[in-house]
Amino acid sequence: MMIIISIVQTLVILALAPLGIGLIRKFKARLANRVGASVFLPYRSLATLCRKEMTVTKHASWVFRAAPFAVLAGALILAALVPTVSAAGTFSAWGNFFLIAAVLMLSAIFLVLGGMDTGSAFGGMGSSREMTIAALTEPALLIVFIALGATTGSWTAAGALTSMAGTPWFLVHPFLVFVFAAFAMIVLAEGARYPVDNPTTHLELTMVHEAMVLEYSGPYLAMLEYAASVKYLVLAVFLANLVVPAGVWGAGSSLLFGAFCFALKLVGVCALTALLESMVAKMRFYRLQEYFTAAYLLALFGLLLSLIF
After folding, report:
1. 133: nearest Cα among 298, 303, 4, 295
2. For the chain, what are the domain ranges?
3. Model-level pTM?
4. Please, which residues bridge with residue 96 across strands?
5. How far from 243 is each of 111, 164, 181, 217, 300, CA to CA, in Å?
6. What is the arithmetic mean of pLDDT over 122-131?
7. Is there a contact between 305 and 58 (Cβ–Cβ < 8 Å)?
8. Cis peptide before 195 (omega within 30 of 0)
9. Binning pLDDT at 50, 70 and 90, where does residue 180 land?
């Protein structure tokens, strides 16, 4: 039964990941007083890419071809380990915080290697920027996970979420607001969203994620775009579950109520992302160190308070 719950949760996230991107684009269009494209357009875009022919430069090695599979595998593992729909299940029980951080880092490394492999100027530039961002993101992410583990007494994502569902954290552990704020900043960075990156940019000099996938086409590009949407949806919904742990199936809620709450959190996360991206501009790359320093200090302050109280 537990393995079935894990498989169903993973399939739900994999099925809804492109819808999340479609909802963000739809909300951004409405905030700009436009009708916007259909929320199902990302599904059609991925299907179109899968039907197109791939063009691979003769200078590319096996690394270029292996990178999309490695990045997609990392997204699939993340969808299985992180509790989004349910806190129960076999896969969620394996979701150690440090394992989740390692999967995120390995996916970034393979993406960087794929961007560098062709030797293109923009691929190398995007890869260099991505490794700089990763080096600034990972310490803050680890501090966030350590703070959650120290506060809840569990070092798995599902265990921490179940522990927080029992008592309201804003009454028992109000200092977690600093940890959640830092985690939100990290989620935006991991998802290549504003203010760290522009997911729809066509200007090569401002690209980070898009520069690394510039040489990819056809099914390879579809795999990378799909993996990015899965990673962002998983992390964003997990953050929403931490902030509002009520309604998570397996953590004190029924299946029907849990499905309803998951739908609300999915729409809410997409709406907040669209609102944020409509209000802020992308930061200059050399100012990102200030952004990640703020995230690190917020997480560290939350950790210190958790150890004191």
Report:
1. 295
2. 2-308
3. 0.94
4. 156
5. 30, 9, 10, 38, 18
6. 88
7. no
8. yes
9. very high
